[in-house]
Amino acid sequence: MVWLGQWMNQSIVQLQIKQPYLDTYSTTLSNYLLFQNNPFFSQVIGYCEKSFGLVVEYYQHGDSSQLNNILLATNLSYSPRAQQIRFQLCIDYVKIIAFLHSQNKYMCDTNTLYKLSTQYLLTDDLRLVLGDVDHLQEAGTKCPSWFVKDMKFEPPEAKPIYRSKCIADWISNKECSEELKKSQFAADIWKIPNVCLLYLGENRLTGVIADNRSERIAQRLLPIHSKCKRLDPTERPDAEEVLATYLQIQSELFK
């Protein structure tokens, strides 16, 4: 259950974990607390383990799936600033992915583009923060199998991701754990172009970016995005390489 409230003249969100999810509370709380004071993560204001409660910051713009509506409501849709904002969100997203990988973390429930976009929140100055860490776990550990998947969004290796020799015991088999970790990180890289194009304003049904300025950014990103979409996951760049390319293009386009 979720409530919007006020505390010391500050808007807050209270999360109350109920049955049958009480066993996930400690994991969710630990994930939130792990990245406090990090500007790319939603911040915890307080919590009560006895009542399974958690209070976090409130973001008035909501999640990043609402970006187009927010730009329209704030009269920024056709402003030159819109493209800077959109591309900055691409950069923020890759920064977060690079950081998670550096911490050996992987998001298990980012299996559809819409779901992923709802997990990231927009700050007042339209920057990106990760707000849903319920299923953030150690890379190299097997994710729950019940998450809904969009196979058009998932990488081509997603179905045969587990070799037969690795099915029996993931916990004790270090070789299999390392294999899975590499596959998980490569899957994150595969998804980056889809996420960035969404933030640039691409229509998910038609694949068209209506704004010519955003389209030009997408064209500049095509070489690195093509690398991210390589069918062989071992040939894809890591998040740091993608980030470095994004930052270089940003410096060239928005001097």
Task: Briefly characterize the structure.
With 255 residues, the protein is of the alpha+beta class.
What is the beta-strand fraction?
Answer: 5-15%
Uncertain segments of ≥5 residues (pLDDT<50)?
none
| Series of H and E elements | EEHEEHHEHEEEHHH
Number of strands: 8
- Termini separation (Å)? 45 Å
Helix content: 40-55%
Strand order in space, largest sheet: 1-2-4-3
Note the overall shape: globular
Q: What integer value in Å does the Rg equal?
A: 19 Å
Count up the helices: 7
Q: Based on helices, strands and strand pairing, what is the structural class?
A: alpha+beta
How much is the average pLDDT?
87
Q: Describe the sheet with the most strands.
A: 4 strands, antiparallel
